[in-house]
């Protein structure tokens, strides 16, 4: 199974974005994206590559679902 995670862009330098999970910052390549992004955008990141820009509401909904799954797993 492959998992891509929605992350918020906090900086862009060339073809590399610094993305934030709320707890950890990482770098994601923008080469595979095919569209311009800017600070504040959400991108779907898989294996270190941004693969799609996301609507902020969709990104927040997905992140909330991840939080709910984590909370459910910790309770069981």
Roughly what is the average pLDDT, rounded to an integer?
Answer: 90
The overall number of domains is 1
End-to-end C-alpha gap: 22 Å
Element pattern in H and E = EEEEEH
**Share of helix, binned:** 25-40%
Radius of gyration: 13 Å
Remind me, CATH topology? SH3 type barrels
For the secondary structure, the number of strands is 5
CATH architecture: Roll
- Large-scale geometry: elongated
Strand content: 35-45%
Structure description:
- The protein has one helix and five strands, in the order E-E-E-E-E-H.
- It is α+β, with helices and mostly antiparallel strands and 76 residues long.
- It has one domain: SH3 type barrels (Roll), CATH 2.30.30.140.
- The chain has a five-stranded antiparallel β-sheet, covered by helices on one side.
- It is elongated.
- It starts with a strand and ends with a helix.
């Amino acid at each position: 199974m492959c998992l891509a995670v929605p992350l918020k862009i906090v900086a862009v330098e060339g073809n590399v974005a610094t993305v934030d999970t709320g707890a950890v910052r990482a770098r994601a390549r923008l080469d595979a994206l095919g569209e311009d992004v800017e600070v504040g955008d959400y991108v779907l990141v898989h294996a270190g590559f941004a693969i799609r820009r996301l609507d902020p509401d969709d990104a927040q909904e997905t992140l909330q679902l991840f939080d709910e799954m984590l909370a459910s797993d910790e309770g069981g």
